[in-house]
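Slide 14.
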Amino acid sequence: MAGTNRKVVVIGGGPGGYTAAFRAADLGMEVTLIDENPNPGGVCLYRGCIPSKAFLHAARVVTESAEASDIGIQFSKPEIDIEKLRSWKNSVVEKLTGGIGMLARQRKVTFIRGRAVFQNASSVRVSGMDGKTESIPFDRAVLATGSRNLGLSGAPDELWDSTAALDLPEIPETLLVVGGGYIGLELGSVYAALGSRVTVAEMLPQIMTGADRDLVSVFMRRAGSRFDAIHTQTRVNRIESAGTAFQVRFSSPEAGPGDMTFERILVSIGRKPNTENLGLENTKVRLDDQGFVQVNPDRSTGDPMIYAIGDITGGPLLAHKASHEGRVAAEAIAGEKSVFDPAVIPGVVYTHPEIAFCGLTETEARETGRNVKVAKFPWAASGRALTMGWPEGLTKLVIDPDTERVLGMGMAGPGAGDMISEGALAVGMGARASDVGIIIHPHPTLSETIMEAADVFYGTSTHVYRPRKD
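Slide 15: predicted structure.
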C-alpha cells in the first residue's frame, strides 16, 4: 500500500492522537507519538472523560440509595471517604493509561514524553520531560493537541476549572457552577451527591445547549431538586474574594442584579483549542478566527505534510469524534481514500438521568424549517422503566414523514448513553422507522422504548394508544 513506509509523528496523545498513531502503525508506518503525560491518554483519560465518569458512578450510587426510600428501602446517610474515593478514581486512570502505554509498545510505536514544536514542515523539536532536546524528522505529522478550559476574565485565580474539580480537593458546603453545559452539570451533579449545595448559573435561555427542551425537562423534573438552584439567562458580572469564600454579583432579565456568597466556584464556560506555541508559523497550517486549524475532509491542513484532528479542528469537542478523525488521517496518510464525513455523531450528558441524542434534533428541524414528524414514547408506559422507578423517562424519534427515514433520536433516562448507539446506527444506515419497529427487542427492557417510538409513528404502538393521522 502506498505510503506505508512513511515516518509519522503524532503530536498529542489523547484518544484522537493515540488512535491515529495506532492505526498508522497497523498500516505499517514508523510512528512516533509525543505527549507530556507519562502514558498516552490525554485530557480524556487523565483529566476529563474517565475521572468524571468514575465520580459520576459514585454520585449515582449515593443518589440511588436515597431514591430507594420511595420503594420501601431505607439507607442511612452515606459516609464519604474522600481520600479513598480520590484514590479509586486515580487507580482507574492509571489502569487505563497504563494499558494504552502497553498497546503502544505492542505496536512498536515510539512514545516520547515531551513537548513538540514544528521547526518546519518536515521536523519537530521535542523538549523532553527529562530536560533533553532532540530534533525528529517526519514525512507526515498529525497534530492532535486538544483543547483547554476557558477562564473568566478578571476573576480570582483560586476558582476551579474542571481539572481542579476532578482532583476532588474537598467537598465545599456551597458551590457555584458557572455554565450549564455538559461538563458543568456533570460535575455539579457529583458535588451535589457528595453533599455540596450547588447553584448553576447559565447565561443562555436553556441548560444543555443542543439538547431538545423535552429531554432537558426530564433532567429538571428528577435532578433539578438535587441542586440548590439552576438559573438560566443569568450573567456572572463580578467575583470577589471574601476571606475564605467568594462574593458573586449576578444579573438576569427577571431578577436584576443580586449578590450571593459561595465557598467554591467552578467555571465551566467552554474550551479553546491548543494551537499556540506549536511553531505553526514555520508551516503552512492555517487557523480560523477562533484559533481552530482549518482542515480538508481527509484532515489534511494547508500544509500537505501536516494533518490535524480532534478538538483543534472545531465541531463537537468529543473524544469519539477525535478518534474517528484519527483513523481517517492515518488512512489518508497511507494513501487510502478516507475522509471524515460522519452521518451522525452522538452526544451524551452523563448526569442522572442521562441525556443522549444523535442526528437531527427536533430543535434543529424547527429552526431550519425542516418538515419532520416526532414520535415520542413516554417511559411511563414502559414496564421496565416503572420497575426502576423512572416514569419520567422519554424516547423520541425524529422522522422524515415522506421517506419515513429516521433522521435523529433522543433519550432521557438511565442508560440513555448506551442505548443511543441504536439510534446512531439507524440514522447512519438510512433506516426507516419500520426497520426499527420490526426488529424484536427483548422484554422488559428500556431498549424496547426505541421500537415502541417507531411504532408510535405508525400509530401501532402496543402500549401507547395514538392512532396515526395521515
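Speaker note: The two ends are 54 Å apart (CA to CA).
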